[in-house]
Amino acid sequence: MIICKKQRELHDLLEKKKFGQDEIGFVPTMGALHTGHLSLVDAAKKQNKIVICSIFVNPTQFNDPEDFKKYPISLEKDILMFEGAGCDILFIPSVEDIYPNGTNDLAHYDLGFLETVLEGKFRPGHFQGVCLVMERLLEIVLPNNLYLGQKDYQQCIVIKKLIELIGLNGRVEVNICPTLREDDGLAMSSRNIRLLPGDRKKAATISAALRYIKENLKAGDTKQIKNEAKEMLLQRGFRIDYIETADGDTLNLVDKWDGKQKIVALVAAFLNKVRLIDNMVINT
Ligand code: AMP
Q1: Which residue, 18, 152, 281, 283, has most beta carbons within 10 Å?
Q2: What is the pLDDT of residues 220-252, one digit of tens each?
Q3: φ, ψ for residue 110 (rounded to 5)?
Q4: Pocket of ligand 1, candidates 33, 35, 37: which has the most ligand atoms within 8 Å of its Cβ, to mutate?
Q5: Catalytic residue among 11, 37, 108, 126
Q6: Cα–Cα nearest to 174, from 134, 155, 147, 137
Q7: What pLDDT digit, counting tens, does each position of 25-71 carry?
Q8: Is residue 37 annotated as part of the catalytic site, yes or no?
């Protein structure tokens, strides 16, 4: 595995090799790797000649400075994990490389409704930061295939919209990979290691609540089932940002379901200071 710490190095390397169509798969991450991340590398390896991964803890997407400060970092372990998974090139840029003109007065993306709902509503500015880093990474790596996790459902939709906005539609294909879970159902996440020991057990209630919605939702009003799922979380001591059902493509909230529309149940909730998100698609 080749490690590049500068945009220039990566650029020169890619120039030299002259990769063609359908040859570069890209897995962007913020590090603190777990098996979920590696499943994206696996998917990328199956479909591309070379796999490029990146580690960059993007300051502009943290709406909460505390969260940024406490974001787990395990670079040496991450390098070994990426190498073991078969990553060919690991890009670890600096903030200066990604934001050569600093992090103020940056571009603004018209994400419309997506910024007003769910994560967009509860984490103001978050998706602007996601778009800033993704546009820059896509410009540098110019992959044919991009690999993202369903775990961050709204992020996948935002990035697809970004790709349209910056004119890369048809040039970069988005591949969404299933959420990997721990044995008790908790979605793997870099933030899980910040859970207090007593909270780690409780955390699995998030996926249990989503499964409850998935298994019990019937055509008609979605409110009662959402309230029951909410109650499951409240009883375990969660502080809930949202628990919602939404259209699987647009994320328009769905209060009345016709039983056919593809919908997704999404939740964001805190256990003490750790914010967890998860989702499940209902009718597939
Ligand atoms: P992050 O390092 O949290 O920015 O995540 C990097 C990529 O890994 C994103 O596309 C995430 O959606 C994806 N990812 C995170 N957790 C999981 C998981 N449990 N299963 C599959 N993919 C995941």
Answers
A1: 152
A2: 999 999 999 999 999 999 999 999 999 999 999
A3: -85, 90
A4: 37
A5: 37
A6: 147
A7: 999 999 999 999 999 999 999 999 999 999 999 999 999 999 999 99
A8: yes
Asked if residue 125 lies in contact with residue 114, where contact means CB atoms within 8 angstroms, the answer is no
CA distance 18 to 151: 33
Q: pLDDT tens, 122-138?
A: 999 999 999 999 999 99
The best mutation among 62, 75, 137, 151 to test binding of ligand 1, ranked by most ligand atoms within 8 Å of the C-beta, falls on 151
- Please give the helix or strand (H or E) that residue 208 lies within, else none: helix 205-216
Model pTM? 0.97
Residues in the chain: 284
Measuring CA to CA, which residue among 83, 81, 86 is closest to residue 45?
Answer: 86
- CB contact set of 86 (below 8 Å; sequence gap of 6+): 41, 42, 45, 51
